[in-house]
Amino acid sequence: MHLFRAHPAAGNAARRLPRVLVVPALAALTAALAVACGGGAPPSTPAATAAPATRAAATAAVTPAAETATATATPEPRAITFMAGFRPQANLPFVAVYVAEDEGFFADEGLTVDIQHSSGQDEHLKLLLDGTVHFTTGTAAQLLRRREDGLPVVGIALFGQRGDQGYVARADSGISGPADFEGRSVGFKAGVVPAELVAMLATVGLTEDDVELVAVGFDPRTFIEGQVDVYPVFLDNEPDTIRRAGVEITVIDPADFGVPTLGLTFLANAQTVSGDPELVRRFLRAAMRGALWAEEHIDEAVQITLKRAEGADAEHQRFLLATDLENAQRADGMGRADVQQWRDLQALLVQYGVLTASADLSGGFDGSFIDALYASGELSPAASTTGR
Predict the structure, then answer these.
(1) Per-residue pLDDT reduced to its tens digit, 355-366
(2) Structural fold of domain 4-17+34-162+262-384
């Protein structure tokens, strides 16, 4: 079973629970992150290949060879749509696009990009299918589930080298890992118990029957007010919110306990990947320059984000972006992935009933575009391992 296509040179996964205790919904203290899957693109005529002119502000994100490259052709002007999977905020894939627009990296590619944000309920997935949206975002687990449903979505860059969901407990609760969950109340969101939670419990010999599972909403006051011992969080969001409310916490990440998890990706329509590869290259080249620029200019990237996220707290957005950047680190370059990561994630989801063992998920992630950008020297792996 092949999940990954490499260059020659180179969400939440959950299942239904039959009976749980439900905590009444509370008025929202803060909106939690929720990234849904989707995106799409219509077929079109491939554009002429061109090396982008490098701006001085992006020198940390490209190699000297790319800096001195000159365009061999003028890129064919294209108007495309990117729809982020949630509201404007500093998720790394969102910021990559915001920066690429503001710093002129899309203009270097001859691209005029309409940046939109999903209103929820899989809006951008629907627009993927009808060809209105060209590129969007989603988690790796969501991507695999969509592929199993037969939807033509393809991941073209993996930012989250570990998943974005974890758990928190009060620092004075005596809970520091899954072994301490026994007999405690453990929250889960959206009516489903994540496979990652069940897998994490299994690493210490526990099952769902050993904890009190509690359905919670997206308002962290459920945890702050003591209604649940262990609260599910998006790791780049609620831990900061809870600490700002004066509660000291221990953060528990399933990946730290041997559970294979992956996070956010860029998504495209399979028809675009096969029928308009030059557009994929141009978008990804510009967006990855944006991501690497943001890594070297994190405060400036936050300010660029705030132009779109009006009224958002700058420090909270910085926490979000810094966390995503940390989780995107890999020695061979941000955005890349290897086949074993996808195999491990699929095996986890099959084991806990999220996916079926017979599902053919071939072509779910196409790493050839991002690999080629690094192989050609247009992106530098060193730029994605520097300190912030």
Answers:
(1) 988 777 878 999
(2) D-Maltodextrin-Binding Protein; domain 2 (3.40.190)
